[in-house]
Amino acid sequence: MTQKAFLTLTALLITVSFGFAFHRASKTSYIHEFEISKSSSASLKKAEAEPFYQERFVSPPNLANFVHAASITEMSNYQLRAVWYGGSRDGSTDLTIYSSVFNNNAWGPTNPITTRKETSSELNLLVKKLGNPVIWTDQNGKLWLFYVNVVFGGWAVSNINFKVSMDNGETFSKAQKIHTSPYLNYSTLVKSKPHQLTDGSIVLPTYHEFIGNMSELLILNQKGQPIDKQRLSTFRQTIQPEVVPISEKKATVLMRCSSQKHPRNMRVKNTKDGGKTWSEIQSANIPNPNSAISSVAVDDYGLIVVFNNHPYNRTNLTLALNRDLKGVDWQIIHTFEQDPNGSFSYPYLIEDSQGDYHLVYTWNSKRIKHITFNKAWIQSKVHQHAHHP
Amino acid sequence: MPITLNLSASLLLLNILLRMPFIRLFRPPAKWLMLFLFLALIQIPITHISLVGIVSGILGNISITTTILLCLWLLSLFTAKPLLLLQPIQQQLFPLVFFAGILLYFFALGIVLFDLYALGYQAFYILLALLFVCCFNLWRKNFTVIFIILIDLLVYSASLLNSSNLWDYLIDPLVFCLALYTYFCIVLKKSVTATR
Asked: Which of A20, A21, A182 sits opposite B105 (nearest CB)?
């Protein structure tokens, strides 16, 4: 072959290869609009309701020596499912992801969803431990379970897997890995609620703990493959972002402060264009002792956040309200837990289709606790604080 | 589990195993036998996971660039022809890997809001940059780096790796470290030569 012919052939191969690659890359577009689902029955129920508040435990008392990082979702059959991880201690190799279903005003039996060995076999990859399960129901009723695994070392070198269920959690698919980092896919974790965009894409809040701590948003397609990633904060500022969509284009993101500098307050960012761009980071007026927070929007009322109202420890769990939806100025309205010898952490708060709010959190690392309340109860607390500050 | 991921980990293990001192004493026909024997052995689960799975779990996604280099390295055990590509790889590919890696891994640390790795998901701009690189190397008649990039892109187009990020097809810490090591050896050699 002459050199000219070889050059021509190479140019042709370049054209064909790049043609295929550009075509592949074109499949990653998505619409920057949050899916806001409003149930008319929920709004009606909220308007008529009496204040309602109930507490109970999700996990049985002797399930494991250590339990942590619960999440909860309302499934397509309107039942609630909670997941958490537990084992002999945090970071042990016997950590298992457990699940339970809330039915007839009580939590059912606890069942394991996956173990280290099962995930390892399904991925055909080495897995040392599991953690941080996040359960979520998409708009089509599919149940997603995101969770992290560690190959060696600590949580800082985690990576994310997911499983899906088409039968409300009775069975789950095999684990699939999500690739999010160029450092051998290490150091991405999950904690907070995913959200859906109007085109069906999924916004999964994630964070890094390798060298620098930072919050990110991972955009997934409906097959669970990443199609975009956005960084929300930089080196050692924040982790565990909690996105709270307010409208199709507006959202507030609240973040755990992981900075070493005091005072540490919860960090906030806002978007007005569906997440294309975000405002500068601001500090909220509530403390954050480098601990997880969870938040939802309350229809026509504001944002509520559950957090540890202490600069250094997690000895209390508190509810605060923000009326302007920007997430900076908060009013404390209720304390769920207060015990100087206790530890209450990793709150996870959702609103169900009936307009009730469900909070799950780690109770003294021994059990997962569940609190249910409604908008009327929130309003009664605000009224109470207004008259008895 | 995509075939390519296990292939990369398998190639890495085979390169290490077949370079053990006692194996190097074997002649090529016996070496082929050893290759297939090792290939089978490393796939067999020990308790619940194979040696390939252990390596894949630790190293994560091995890029197609590294996979190609591992293939050539393995073939060099049986024939001298891959060694002809050593100089073009060092002179054409490694500077590109080094430059791209420095930028990629720096921005991945999170020091600034910009994340070069994120551009690999919406890969239009990375592809434009690669097109420029290929056209430049076509003009310079550097075909080795062009064909490695084209193979990377074809595997990316077929989505054969678990990852949907173009960067994971192009580069990984293994090939970056190799490029870094090669670059420092060259710099060291030049400085030693200059001082003589």
From this structure: A182
Q: Look-up: residue for tokens 């954050």? A: A288
Rounded to whole angstroms, the Cα distance separating A53 from A49 reads: 12
Smallest Cβ–Cβ distance between B150 and the set A17, A152, A186 belongs to A17
Residues of B in contact with A213 (CB under 8 A): 110
Grade residue A43 by pLDDT with cuts at 50, 70 and 90: low
Please answer yes or no on whether B127 and A21 come within 8 Å at the CB atom: yes
Per-residue confidence (pLDDT) for residue A38, from 0 to 100: 61
The mean pLDDT value of chain A amounts to 92
Under a CB-based contact definition with an 8 Å cutoff, are residues B109 and A187 in contact? no
The residue type at A61: P
Which residues does residue A57 pair with via DSSP β-bridges, in sequence order? A369
Cβ neighbours of B47 (radius 10 Å) = 8
Residue A156 CB-density burial (10 A; 0-12 exposed, 13-18 middle, 19+ buried): middle
Are B109 and A231 inside 8 Å of each other by CB?
no
Distance CA B171, CA B174 (A): 8
- Choose, out of A7, A28, A157, A179, the residue to mutate when testing the contact with B (most B CBs < 10 Å): A179
Contact B122/A28, CB-based, under 8 Å?
yes
> CA Rg, chain A, in Å?
22
- Write down the mean pLDDT value for chain B: 87
Q: Distance between CA A34 and CA A21 in Å, rounded?
A: 29
Tell which residue, A373, A66, A119, has the closest CA to residue B48.
A119
Residue B1 has a pLDDT of 44
- Smallest Cα distance from B40 to chain A, Å: 16
**Would you give the end-to-end CA distance of chain A in angstroms?**
88
- Is some CB atom of chain B closer than 8 A to the CB atom of A10? yes
A235 interfacial to chain B (CB closer than 8 Å): yes
Cβ-defined contact of A14 to B159 (cutoff 8 Å): no
Cα–Cα distance for residue pair B19/B38, rounded to 1 Å: 12
pTM over 0.80: yes
Nearest to A145 by CA among A184, A121, A112, A120: A112
Tell whether the model's pLDDT for residue A40 goes beyond 50.
no
How far apart (Å, rounded) are the C-alpha atoms in residues A256 and A284? 11
Q: Which of A25, A186, A234 sits opposite B124 (nearest CB)?
A: A25
